[in-house]
Amino acid sequence: MTKLLMVKGVPADVCIQCGEIYYTVDAAKALESLENEVLKGSAKLTELDNAYDVPLAAAH
Ligand SMILES: [Zn+2]
User: Fold this and answer.
1) Cα-to-centroid distance, 20 and ligand 1 (Å)
2) Ligand 1 mean position, distance from CA 42 (Å)
3) Rounded to whole angstroms, what are the CA distances from 36 to 30, 31, 32, 50?
4) Which end of the chain, C or N, has fewer beta carbons within 10 A?
5) What is the rounded CA–CA span in Å between residue 33 and residue 56?
6) Between the CA atoms of 32, 5, 46 and 7, what dihedral angle is there, to the nearest 10 degrees?
7) pLDDT reading at 14 higher than 60
């Protein structure tokens, strides 16, 4: 079963030319560490219908 991980408040940019969404380096790193926390089971998750709502700590 595939689970979706929904993360709010991720800063991202959109390419004006092709519309592709890409993350800042800080955001990408934060998502990567968050993914690791989720895999380890140490992240605090709020289960929604078919997704998880994860509070993302502010990236510094
Ligand atoms: Zn582009």
Assistant:
1) 6
2) 35
3) 10, 9, 6, 20
4) N
5) 10
6) 60
7) yes
